[in-house]
Amino acid sequence: MALSGKRILLIISGGIACYKSLDLIRRLRERGASVRPIMTKGAQEFVTPLAVGALAADHVFTDLFSRQDEQDVGHIRLARDCDLVLIAPASADLMAKMANGLADDLASTALLATARPVLAAPAMNPRMWAHPATRRNAARLREDGVRFVGPMAGEMAESHEAGLGRMAEPLDIVAAAETMLEDGEKPLKGRKAIVTSGPTHEPIDPVRYIANRSSGRQGHAIAAALAKLGAEVTLVSGPVAIADPVGVHTVHVERAEEMRDAVLAALPADIAVMVAAVADWRVASAADQKLKKHPGESIPTLALTENPDILKTVGHHTMRPKLVIGFAAETQDVESNARAKLERKGADMIVANDVSPATCIMGGSRNSVRLIRHDGVERWPDLAKEEVAERLAALIAEHFHA
Ligand SMILES: Cc1cc2nc3c(=O)[nH]c(=O)nc-3n(C[C@H](O)[C@H](O)[C@H](O)COP(=O)(O)O)c2cc1C
């Protein structure tokens, strides 16, 4: 399924294993992927562009300085217009070029120009694979984010030698490509996130409480969006009337102090998105029994005390997540208040929104936010809260892959 509709840029470099690339093209296409081939000069000594093109049902790109293909800077287009770059076979020579950032033919230039995931299936003589130069190059490429499938141990086709160096079988390469594409859709896989959402209820007595108009819709949508990108999410939710998001571990709390405890219990984490509208104050000493109205008695006054500042606590914690994002609900001076909050609370980013009643944001289904970072402000258009969540989750994923 992962390959269906995916565009594979297949780079074939020179080695005996090129004959297996013909079968690989068929296997990829059987699974619904389209294959756009680039062949090095070396590869064309082993299999013909005619055979590769016929199996791929596409033009075969061979020449960096092609007048026809480069009319629209074709090497950049090839590098960009694909979901995965697959090198099979990856020769010792091409790996050496890649490891050193060389770009002296179409394959190496496209590889240097691409920002897409790269999977390499090396194939070479065991002595070439074991050579310290190739070891260094492979290690460097791994550091650069290139993934490998194979090589395998076995008999070499051309030399009657045995050892590590055979190209992985086409079906194993297909499986590795599938895994890589699935991972690409889950860029936050392996990351832990804590999200808070909703209001808090601060008791006055057993039946009355201080609350606010937060519905939890924005925080819940962010938790769901992060989970969709593969993050392991703990959602700490105040009392809300909406369902727990699917695929998220939800902890229900009432009061700010409970929320803080639940957030701290969920550390360590990579990401904290503090969306909840936490009450700034609570009643200093909530009554154990319902406060009664007695004729002739004076009206009670509520003495308030400060609640814990959860964002600030997380922002300055010894186990501070790598990325701390706070929300600022303001009714005036939105940007300057949010900027002050960014500094004070030790956050990396503040998502500010104007919650004046006229905006209908608090409790509503849409949101219009400004992203305040240390280096500037980004204004987003009016969006559904789910869209804000998706954008923010994508931005978080980008942060971890930059
Ligand atoms: C018969 C023959 C088989 C070869 N097999 C391989 C091989 O399996 N792997 C490899 O890295 N190089 C192999 N080579 C050497 C490469 O073809 C050579 O290094 C070439 O410059 C690679 O160019 P390319 O990386 O641009 O395709 C072979 C050469 C010959 C003549």
TrEMBL record:
<dbReference type="GO" id="GO:0004632">
    <property type="term" value="F:phosphopantothenate--cysteine ligase activity"/>
</dbReference>
<dbReference type="GO" id="GO:0046872">
    <property type="term" value="F:metal ion binding"/>
</dbReference>
<feature type="region of interest" description="Phosphopantothenate--cysteine ligase">
    <location>
        <begin position="193"/>
        <end position="402"/>
    </location>
</feature>
<dbReference type="GO" id="GO:0015937">
    <property type="term" value="P:coenzyme A biosynthetic process"/>
</dbReference>
<dbReference type="Pfam" id="PF02441">
    <property type="entry name" value="Flavoprotein"/>
</dbReference>
<keyword id="KW-0511">Multifunctional enzyme</keyword>
<comment type="pathway">
    <text>Cofactor biosynthesis; coenzyme A biosynthesis; CoA from (R)-pantothenate: step 2/5.</text>
</comment>
<comment type="function">
    <text>Catalyzes two sequential steps in the biosynthesis of coenzyme A. In the first step cysteine is conjugated to 4'-phosphopantothenate to form 4-phosphopantothenoylcysteine. In the second step the latter compound is decarboxylated to form 4'-phosphopantotheine.</text>
</comment>
<keyword id="KW-0436">Ligase</keyword>
<feature type="binding site">
    <location>
        <begin position="308"/>
        <end position="311"/>
    </location>
    <ligand>
        <name>CTP</name>
    </ligand>
</feature>
<protein>
    <recommendedName>
        <fullName>Coenzyme A biosynthesis bifunctional protein CoaBC</fullName>
        <ecNumber>4.1.1.36</ecNumber>
        <ecNumber>6.3.2.5</ecNumber>
    </recommendedName>
</protein>
<dbReference type="GO" id="GO:0010181">
    <property type="term" value="F:FMN binding"/>
</dbReference>
<comment type="pathway">
    <text>Cofactor biosynthesis; coenzyme A biosynthesis; CoA from (R)-pantothenate: step 3/5.</text>
</comment>
<keyword id="KW-0285">Flavoprotein</keyword>
<feature type="binding site">
    <location>
        <position position="345"/>
    </location>
    <ligand>
        <name>CTP</name>
    </ligand>
</feature>
<dbReference type="InterPro" id="IPR036551">
    <property type="entry name" value="Flavin_trans-like"/>
</dbReference>
<dbReference type="GO" id="GO:0015941">
    <property type="term" value="P:pantothenate catabolic process"/>
</dbReference>
<keyword id="KW-0456">Lyase</keyword>
<keyword id="KW-0479">Metal-binding</keyword>
<dbReference type="GO" id="GO:0071513">
    <property type="term" value="C:phosphopantothenoylcysteine decarboxylase complex"/>
</dbReference>
<feature type="domain" description="Flavoprotein">
    <location>
        <begin position="6"/>
        <end position="176"/>
    </location>
</feature>
<keyword id="KW-0210">Decarboxylase</keyword>
<feature type="region of interest" description="Phosphopantothenoylcysteine decarboxylase">
    <location>
        <begin position="1"/>
        <end position="192"/>
    </location>
</feature>
<keyword id="KW-0288">FMN</keyword>
<dbReference type="Pfam" id="PF04127">
    <property type="entry name" value="DFP"/>
</dbReference>
<dbReference type="InterPro" id="IPR003382">
    <property type="entry name" value="Flavoprotein"/>
</dbReference>
<dbReference type="InterPro" id="IPR007085">
    <property type="entry name" value="DNA/pantothenate-metab_flavo_C"/>
</dbReference>
<dbReference type="GO" id="GO:0004633">
    <property type="term" value="F:phosphopantothenoylcysteine decarboxylase activity"/>
</dbReference>
<feature type="binding site">
    <location>
        <position position="341"/>
    </location>
    <ligand>
        <name>CTP</name>
    </ligand>
</feature>
<dbReference type="InterPro" id="IPR005252">
    <property type="entry name" value="CoaBC"/>
</dbReference>
<comment type="similarity">
    <text>In the C-terminal section; belongs to the PPC synthetase family.</text>
</comment>
<dbReference type="InterPro" id="IPR035929">
    <property type="entry name" value="CoaB-like_sf"/>
</dbReference>
<feature type="binding site">
    <location>
        <position position="290"/>
    </location>
    <ligand>
        <name>CTP</name>
    </ligand>
</feature>
<keyword id="KW-0460">Magnesium</keyword>
<feature type="domain" description="DNA/pantothenate metabolism flavoprotein C-terminal">
    <location>
        <begin position="188"/>
        <end position="398"/>
    </location>
</feature>
<comment type="function">
    <text>Catalyzes two steps in the biosynthesis of coenzyme A. In the first step cysteine is conjugated to 4'-phosphopantothenate to form 4-phosphopantothenoylcysteine, in the latter compound is decarboxylated to form 4'-phosphopantotheine.</text>
</comment>
<comment type="similarity">
    <text>In the N-terminal section; belongs to the HFCD (homo-oligomeric flavin containing Cys decarboxylase) superfamily.</text>
</comment>
<feature type="binding site">
    <location>
        <position position="327"/>
    </location>
    <ligand>
        <name>CTP</name>
    </ligand>
</feature>
<feature type="binding site">
    <location>
        <position position="280"/>
    </location>
    <ligand>
        <name>CTP</name>
    </ligand>
</feature>
